[in-house]
Amino acid sequence: MKFYLFFILLIAADDQTVASLEKNYEDTIIPYMVYLKSRPPFCMGTLILSQWVITAAHCNTPSEIRLGVLQPNVKEKRQQVRNCSVSIKHPHFNLENLDNNLMLIKLNKPANLNKHVGTVALAIVPSESKRCFVPGWIWTQLNNSTDPDILSWVTHDIIPDEECTKMLPEKMSENKMCVGYYDDFIPPCQEISAVPAICDGRIHGILTISYGCVLQGSGGLFTKIHKYRQWIQNVTSSF
Q1: 184 pLDDT band (50/70/90 cuts)?
Q2: Which of 29, 31, 67, 120 has the fewest Cβ atoms surrounding its Cβ within 10 A?
Q3: Residues in domain Peptidase S1 (predicted)?
């Protein structure tokens, strides 16, 4: 039996495009997406090495880690299940303003890399691109405590830091970047937390604050990955 995913096509403005295609379930591949099953807030991670996942520090340590996932509410043979060996939050994570909002998770054993499970490279310098690809999962119904059931993604503009500071003066810092604009015409949704911003083929950000439904066309504040490259390298080489 074949499974199909349905996405709503929405072109909200010139600066954003929400993905929406009808595709065969087995043909859709975003290999670095990782589902972190835990108590709320529901979070995802991004596979950066065969045994390491990066996510947000505001997320809980997962009880189960699933790789090769398209729909978390559907278990397929292609999925690989791992446990958390160790989770390390950034030592200067600030819960009030969500600065330094990063956490690294080591899998209990390396992922088997294939066409369904793969890594994405870390950003080394600020993105030269003006647009980022942001994938994640949403729920068809609000206030849902089950696993999300829809894969979604959006293409957003990177907003200059000066403009971002004017938009969010209390939350913005040199360690964050705005990806996408606030759009109050976007309907509310329940979406997974800690989605990545993929720019120039590398992970440049992890969602820390959303101002609307990011995966349906609104924007958010992302932690800049290149600012933490040395910390990431130190942790992943020490454990």
Answers
A1: low
A2: 29
A3: 31-237
Instruction: Give the domain extent around 137.
Output: 121-226
Does some domain include residue 89?
yes
Start-to-end CA span in the chain (Å): 43
Looking at the fold, whether 219 and 131 belong to one and the same domain comes out as: yes
Question: Rounded CA gap, 161 and 165, in Å?
Answer: 6
Domain total for the chain?
Answer: 2
Q: Answer yes or no: do 79 and 91 share one domain.
A: yes
C-alpha distances in Å from residue 106, one per residue of 48, 109, 158, 233 = 11, 8, 30, 13
pTM for the model: 0.88
- 3-state secondary structure at position 44: strand
pLDDT band at 27 (very low <50, low <70, confident <90, very high): low
